[in-house]
Amino acid sequence: MAFGDLKTENGVKALNEFLADRSYIEGYEPSQADVTTFQALGKAPASSFPHALRWYNHIKSFGSETSKFPGAKSAAAAPASKPADDDDDDVDLFGSDDEEDEAAEKIKAERIKAYSEKKSKKPTLIPKSSIVLDVKPWDDETDMEAMEKAVKTITCDGLIWGQCKFVPLAYGIKKLQIGCVIEDDKVSVDWLTEEIQNFEDLVQSVDIAAFNKI
């Protein structure tokens, strides 16, 4: 298996690096190679592997539809490019033979068309969510402006911070209420709250005040 044991950190790291500039395990559409890798992984990768986590959440969103992905199931969780003279493959997509290349491209186009037709019949998935977070300080001596600046230093693809305000709690203590919009397949709410809580000197806790799909 090209990624090694996906139950280990090294295996997940290899998968994360592979997906840094790819959307799927093979080609430009989800296939049984994605299903096999997803099953071998077993659970969502840690937030320290953002590319693998993005891919995992995307494949998970298909639910039972994954059984209809093109391709044949295999024991390998990652693609392995075969040499042009490897007799194990029924169709050599990477060979130099012009006729085989044309046949492979025709098959690929038919699969993409069939998958697009199936997907167009499904309800459109809402890819974004609007969230309001309540960030609570330790006491009334906490520098709330410093807290706001610290929270807004958290940036990543798929995260946009919105308006914020300080809301009174009790005994002179205020909380930071801040809104944001996230792309669901790129940003995990759990990851975002953990990142905010990492500012331990300023933040006591983080609560989700509102969560709405866009």
UniProtKB/TrEMBL annotation:
KW RNA-binding (keyword) present: no
A Pfam family matched in the record: EF1_GNE
Segments forming domain Elongation factor 1 beta central acidic region eukaryote: 93-119
Annotated CDD domains: EF1B (cd00292), GST_C_eEF1b_like (cd10308)
The protein's role, per its UniProt record: Catalytic subunit of the guanine nucleotide exchange factor (GEF) (eEF1B subcomplex) of the eukaryotic elongation factor 1 complex (eEF1). Stimulates the exchange of GDP for GTP on elongation factor 1A (eEF1A), probably by displacing GDP from the nucleotide binding pocket in eEF1A.
Subunit text: EF-1 is composed of 4 subunits: alpha, beta, delta, and gamma. EF-1 is composed of 4 subunits: alpha, beta (alpha subunit of the eEF1B subcomplex), delta (beta subunit of the eEF1B subcomplex), and gamma (gamma subunit of the eEF1B subcomplex). Interacts with elongation factor EEF1A1.
PANTHER family assigned: EF-HAND AND COILED-COIL DOMAIN-CONTAINING FAMILY MEMBER, ELONGATION FACTOR 1-BETA
Protein name: Elongation factor 1-beta
Lineage, top ranks: Eukaryota, Metazoa, Ecdysozoa, Arthropoda, Crustacea
